[in-house]
Amino acid sequence: MLRAVLTLAGTAAGLAALLSFKTHSSAADAAPAMTPAPSQTASASAPATATGPTAGKSHPAAGASKSAAGMSQAATAPRTVTGAAASTPYGPMQVQLTLTGQKITKVNVVQRTNAGSESDQIDGFSIPKLTSETLAAQSAQIDAVSGATYTSSGYIKSLQSALDQAKA
User: Fold this and answer.
1) pLDDT single digits (tens) 32-48
2) Whole-model pTM?
3) What residues does each domain of the chain span?
């Protein structure tokens, strides 16, 4: 009788612990790591505008205001970055990101595994999950999809490659 009570109590405690378990941090925790300080954004854009059409003007004050406006547009204008193709046993995976500032606004899979109908089926259910996790996390720190280990691994590698290019 005592053994049954202890088993039941242990099962209830284990179930409560399992239901309260969080698998990953919230998107709010991950987003600050991706966002550079405003001084970094301005300094990264400054050399590009110094060689632009206002560089040779004889009115430096007018050129300075135009380059400042160009920097704010460059920081908010959508840009596209394509990650390197990651090789998997079932074919390559390649991800393309659209970023507005430092925020990932769209994820497009350029290449996906191509080992037949099973790969198509796996990609069909895993890529939307990986994409939604990417948009929520705003980083490559996402969970792999169960049953799609190779697809997930290739996606995450290509995603990290694209994010590295976006920072450069």
Assistant:
1) 444 444 434 343 333 33
2) 0.56
3) 78-167
